[in-house]
Amino acid sequence: MSDPETIRIYDERAADYAGMTDAYNTTDPRLTAFIAACPAAGRVLDLGCGPGAAAAKMAEAGLKVEAVDASAAMVEMAAKHPGVSARQATFDEITGTATYDGIWANFSLLHAPRADFPRHLAALHHAIKPGGVFLIGLKLGKGEARDRIGRLYTYYTEDELMDHLRKAGFTPGDIRHGSGEGLDGSTAPWISVIAHG
């Protein structure tokens, strides 16, 4: 994420966001499946970690967690969780080769401009170990738009997402659909895909 307005909103609304999402994030069945798919004591990246609830759950399960977010306020909250190493970084700052056993990108890459999405996926595929588990969650739809409070979103159809994942080198696997209320009060459909590097 590099959109200044989106980052500013997350900085200002970090506590509100945590209050809205922490309870669900700690009991998310997708997170349970992700953790189970990672090797014991594996190294994982929580990309766009937000307040760090998911990262904390990964750490509790014995994983070595690196949590990154472009929002300084979110990083500050995430760093307070035991076992979570958190730092401020944008999607462009993710580097490394075969570094991670798993990458959790749950509703983070939807803030990347469409033109940058293939490059970010390619970098993540480069950073994940062969066969590593990759979870991505996005909102379904078309185009780019700002939500009611000004955050930048890029929407994808399921077919578009599958195409992007395969072109980046990932093998898509388990797919789930749902809908949920966002920080702006609107409800939107989403897709979550567990893929492998």
From TrEMBL:
It holds the Pfam family Methyltransf_25. GO terms for biological process: methylation. The keyword Transferase applies. Gene3D superfamilies: Vaccinia Virus protein VP39. The keyword Signal does not apply. It comes from the Bacteria. One of its GO terms (molecular function) is methyltransferase activity. This is Class I SAM-dependent methyltransferase. It comes from Antarcticimicrobium sediminis. The lineage of its organism: Bacteria, Pseudomonadati, Pseudomonadota, Alphaproteobacteria, Rhodobacterales.
